[in-house]
User: What shape does this take?
Amino acid sequence: MEKLRLDNWLTPSKALVLGFTAIIAFGTFLLSLPVASANGQALSALDALFTATSALCVTGLAVVDTGSTFSLFGHIVILIFLQVGGVGFVTMAVVISVIIGRRVGLRERILLQESLGHVKIQGMVRLALYILGVALIAEAAGFVLLWVRWQADLGSGRAAWFALFHSVSAFVNAGFDLFGQQGQSSLQGYRGDVLVNLVIAGLIFLGSLGAPVLIELINWRNTQRLSLHSSLVLSMSALLLVGGAALILLTELNAESPLLQMPWGERLLVSLFHSASARTGGFSTVNLAEMTSTAWLVLIMLMFIGAATASMGGGVKVNVLGALVFTLWSVGRGREEGEAFGRTIPRETVYKAMAVVIGAAVFVMVMTIALTISERLEPFYLMFEVVSAFGTVGFSLGVTPELSPVGKLLVIITMFVGRLGPLTLIAALARTPAAQHLRYPEEKIMIG
Assistant: This one.
């Protein structure tokens, strides 16, 4: 049966690309207005485009300091774009339709299914409501905790605004912060603050799991069962969180590392925080440029893997990595198909997972090479920024603000593709294939 489409030419993939493009264009217009700037002077179109893309793609990379460059109006625009980009503009549209009593048709359900990468079309409206509900509850909890903590530092009113902005930014895995105007970079002023670290890292981790997994966890007491997707996400996320923290700690055993100047408790806190934040969170409590190059490799690995499908984060996704790891283990043991948690992983799932990882790796290499041509900077630094942009993380070694206009455009494209996914973009650009009634003969190739 031919795949359902929105109409003859507007496939779900094309609709997502066009929708993202239109919203980014609108955000660019708003952020380029003089009222969006703290000094009343209009931001350049390119910097406004970069910021709007970074906000909607929940990346966090910035070419200007967010806290000091934008006015309250600009901050509100960025906050709205973070929320819409995190839960998804299709999800927001469906929720608004339900609130105003408008019927959600088949087209909207197909588009929502495509945007979330969901397997089934049934229950998509309920899932959209759950996604927004979970996001608001988590962000509200983070807001209260941060507001209580920051009142003594910022005053009640300012603490409330900072708590709201950072709780949303953390849960949607964006990494935008307002502390630049406080003479700090990201959360370096709270490096040893256990409450701030745990709240921000906790919000990032929850957002990286995705609403479908969180809903299953909430209902686990009644069902006593987790889907294969949730099992893969939880197991791989826990492994990467602990393993990433251990690797960061080990790679920073260098005499010049800033971590060695800290007490052991603070070292553990910094390592755990950056392990969580590297998988698309984007907040940092130390200057990343001062870390060792080996630690950068660990961060690049975590950024490339990213969060879970249907979550707030990017990357190739932990469930994709989990499917490939378990399949590799199964094949190595002589099995014909991948097996995990007592279930078989379908071959088409493995093929798609391989396509995602290979496509992402090729795209990252191509964009890195393109940046080395346009910029006179160290290739390793540029690769770090590219992986950060593709994984919608926001970590930076200080390179992004120094990029040329061509370099900024390349990073904008990388953030856009990273949020939508290479397969979605390819599907949007590809021509609709004609019905194929023949199958070529099989022939084995040597593997090993």
In short: The longest helix spans residues 124-154. Confidence is low (pLDDT under 50) at residues 1-6. DSSP finds 18 helices and two strands in the chain.
